[in-house]
Every structure is written in structure tokens, then in C-alpha cells.
Amino acid sequence: MAQNHFEPDSYLEFVRLEIPEYDELEETVAEAASASAAARILDLGAGTGETARRVLERHPGASIVLVDSSAEMLAAAREALAEDRVESVLVQRLEDPLPPGPFDLVVSALAVHHLESADKQVLFERIAGVLKPGGRFVLADVIVPRDPGLASTPVISEFDRPDRLDDQLAWMGEAGLEPSVLWTNGDLAVIAARRPEMAAA
Ligand SMILES: C[S@@+](CC[C@H](N)C(=O)[O-])C[C@H]1O[C@@H](n2cnc3c(N)ncnc32)[C@H](O)[C@@H]1O
Hints:
Blueprint: H1 11-18, H2 22-33, E1 40-44, H3 50-58, E2 63-68, H4 71-80, E3 86-91, E4 103-109, H5 117-130, E5 131-142, H6 165-174, E6 178-185, E7 188-194
Parallel strand pairs: 1-2, 1-4, 2-3, 4-5
Antiparallel strand pairs: 5-7, 6-7
Bound molecules: S-adenosylmethionine (SAM).
């Protein structure tokens, strides 16, 4: 996404221009997130709270932990979300250790592509570690499509580091998660990955 610093006030207008499928992608995340009950949710790269708002609507009894490296974006998220639905707001990088689990649900939209490949792998392992058995990770992001002609999201190389879908599915599998692809559109994808009830022997 062709901006290395997001402004909360203009974020929605900006992202809808860059990604015309933004609302469809967010709704797909929220639908996927509603597939099973959740009381405690983690949102990684929460930004202004758009993903969290839609996910919380589908889980009326749940509370959420928001993580983002931008204090400004998180301040906007705090304003957008009901106070009693937000457990905590953490200004930290996705490359850093995650807040302690267990979580029933981890969601992340349009943020993980900012990480290097190796950091994505570590993040998926950490997510598997904080998910409850039977819990879900829903990832929506920019990917490198098989056909380069399908890439339409503007990217800047020092800030955006999308990876191939197959690689990310493999890394989730290596982390002990069971991923399935729910939606793709050009260079965008939504994946739901379940932590099995029992670890494989
Ligand atoms: C495109 S916005 C997505 C926000 C929200 N999830 C949504 O879908 O509208 C990307 C967010 O990721 C955050 N971000 C980028 N790199 C990050 C990193 N390494 N660690 C934590 N947050 C990061 C940015 O501050 C920004 O709020």
C-alpha cells in the first residue's frame, strides 16, 4: 500500500481508493471470525479499529486486545470502539512477542504483509501459541499472486513485503495450524487457520 505512514483521519478514504475490495475483504474476515464462539479476541495491526468493530459486532459478549505500532491509529480505534469491549490497547510491533493468551480468535487485516518472510513465520508460530485449542486465526492480506498481472494493490518495497499465498499456508501448517483459503481476489486473500484441539503426534 503506497504509504509508509497511515493517517487516522484519512485512512478509510485512502484504503478504499487503494483497495476497492476493502469492505468486501473486511466483511469476509468478520464472517470467517463468526464461525465459532469467541470471548477473547486479539487484533494484530488493528489500525483505526475497522476490523475489530465488525468482528465485535458478531461476538456481542467478547472483548478484544488491539495491537499496532501506531499510537495515532490506536487512539482512533479507542474512540471508535465501546470502552467496555476493549480489554487493552498495545502500541507494539508485530515482530515482538504477542500479549499472553489464550485467545479464542486472532484476526489480522492488511498488516502482516509489512513483515519480512522470516518474521511472518515467527508470528504464525506465536499466534498458534496464544490460540486456544480449537481457536481460529483469520488473516486477510495482500499477497504475491501466481500471475503477476493480477497484482493491483500499490506497494512500496521498503514498507510492503507481501509473500505468496502457498508459502504463507505452508508456514501456518509448520506452526501447527490448519489453514484454508476462504477468498481471493487478484492480490488479496483471506485465510482461516484453525488450531487443532489436539496437537499432532
Ligand atoms: C492498512 S492498515 C490496516 C488496519 C486495519 N486492520 C484495517 O483492516 O483497516 C495497517 C496497520 O498495520 C500497522 N502496522 C504496520 N506495520 C506494523 C508492524 N510491523 N507492527 C505493528 N503494526 C504495524 C499500521 O500502523 C496500520 O495501522
